[in-house]
Fold this sequence. Notes:
Elements lengths: L1 H42 L10 E6 L1 H6 L7 H10 L6 E4 L11 H13 L3 E5 L1 E2 L6 H14 L3 E4 L14 E2 L4 H6 L2 E4 L3 E2 L6 E3 L3 E4 L2 E4 L1 H9 L4 E4 L3 E4 L4 E4 L1 E2 L5 E2 L15 E4 H12 L15 E6 L8 E4 L2 E5 H13 L5 E2 L2 H21 L2 H24 L2 E2 L3 H33 L5 H9 L7 E14 L2 H6 L3 H21 L2 E7 L2 E6 L8 H25 L7 E16 L4 E6 L1 H16 L3 E4 H7 L3 E9 L8 E9 L2
Parallel strand pairs: 1-17, 1-18, 2-3, 2-18, 3-7, 5-12, 21-22, 26-28
Antiparallel strand pairs: 4-6, 8-9, 10-11, 12-13, 13-14, 15-16, 19-20, 23-25, 23-26, 24-25, 26-27, 28-30, 29-30
Amino acid sequence: MKIFKGKAFFFKTILLQLFLIALISFISITFWENSIYDIFIQNSKATVESTDDTILIMVDNKSISRYRWPWDRSLYAEIFDYLQYSKPKVVVFDTILRAMDTNNTESDKRLFDSVKRTDRFIGAYIAQTAQYDNEETGKVYDEDFKNKNSISITDNSHFYFDYSPNYYNSIVKTPKQYFDVQQHIGAANHDIDKIDGVMRESTDLIYYKDNLYPSISLYAYLIANDADQLTITNKYLLVNKTNLKIPIKYTKNGNLGHLVKFYKFRDNKYTHNAISAVDIIDSYRLIKNGKKPLIDPAIFNNKAVIIGINASNEAEDTLETPISSKHSGPDVQATILDNFLHNEFLYPLTAGQNMAIIILMSILSFSIIRVMPFLPSLLTLMGMAILYFIICILAFANNIVPLVITPLAVQISTMIFGYSYRFILEGKNKEKIKNAMGKYLSQDIMKNVVQNIDDIKLGGKKANVTVLFSDIRGFTSMSEKMTAEEVSMILNEYFSEMEPIITKYNGVINKFIGDAVMAIFGEPIQDLNHSQNAVKCAVEMLKKVEQLREKWLQEGKPKIEIGIGINTGEAFVGNIGSEKRLEYTVIGDTVNLASRIESYNKVYKTNLLISSSTYSHVSDIVDVIKIADVTIRGKSKKMDIYEVLKLSD
């Protein structure tokens, strides 16, 4: 039954620990893990410098200081016309035109004509949760939008994207004239963390009304490589033509993306080569006038070009990312595109792999706590935590992203839980040991040892005590007529009846010597009336023996008599023995005299004899017969002893 209870306690402990692992993992992943991830990204060797394969043309503060915002759209047309003098891989316009410029329709026409002439052009759109204002025109726009997409997507995964089919309900409309002249359009949506507002993952495929559409960055990669087929597997988004394997993450709204690998900033604003839009416009005008441009169009040859806005105030387009609180939106798109172009990705561990690490850390921590002493186990666990942290640093440097804080948080909780469990278990074991040892030692001696556990040593003190010896008369001859089992049964019953009587009067059984009992009064239990209590204890012991005698006679067992000797005096009380083996006892002439007085019960046919020193303390509570001038072995002078007849009224 005790074993079962022990197992039940262990299994309850394990279940509670599993619950704590789940709870801490949820809290850590929800609130802490992203923050530590950002710190690692900012300081990790995983963040490297980008290449010049992607170039930004930015409408920046320099541009709007020359031409006031909002811009005349013919300025954009000059940028696209300038690019006609080069051969870029792809041209991305990361800006959404929501309406015509009613004040300057000619600027719109010039822009649309320029876009139409621009080869490999990709415009941007935004999918939104709001419904169309007009459902009929919305359906028409959705059909045109679907026809504009020329990418074939095959889903070979075990997941079909229907768990959130109505997350997006409309597309931000652009004027039809502009929509028609764009060769391709890609989604400019970003997956922003809803808790802290940080963008860490890209949106590579957007799920809109039962179909998947590529993002503006993925579309740019596909166009740059003349690819038009994608395949989705459980772990990767594959570009069929180039064999690019994008490690995908599924988002709650049905999109697919990847953990973005960010690059180092080249200056305070951009991680990529960025050129002011006004410099491009000036260069275009110089070329048109037959002069040398500020920026040679040849630098855009075989490059991916992204045109966007990042000026202060009303023309700002920024996102919060792990490396910046105001990261330029076009620069983020360039980062995602570079991930594709150079096959540079971060590979987060799967949920199963992270959970395996968490459980392994917890099991190892719990096992170390159980089998090792406190200080070595604590140092080992600290070393294990430091080692895991170093492994995480190395993993990030090699583009592998494990959970960092969650396993460590679980380890700390396991340490708290494990040491608490160990404390409870050790407490239970100590109690068991105490109870078991209490059957061999006096409970009072055991308590004294426990209370002074840190100060156990050889030695003791002198103290005034009363020593009681009791012995069964004729036990040797009686035991010769019985089997060993019968003898042990009688002794066990006899001692079982004597022990509570001695304890009742603040006595401590020092030892059982065959059929004899030695008890101490006054130490280690402090008792000013130890002499009187010893005599009262002896009287009650004799009464109990009378009851046992009648019982045993009825059971056919032999008749027994006991003799008791009591002496009071100074004795040494404490630990004797060796450093490895101690015994708490009383030694001295007082003890020897008590033993010899007990032996005189045989001579005088008595049952209870006390010394004169004991009598001096109990004379007012006992009726006695004085036995004068007794010769005690080992004593040069004769002495008086007293037979106790009864306790006086």
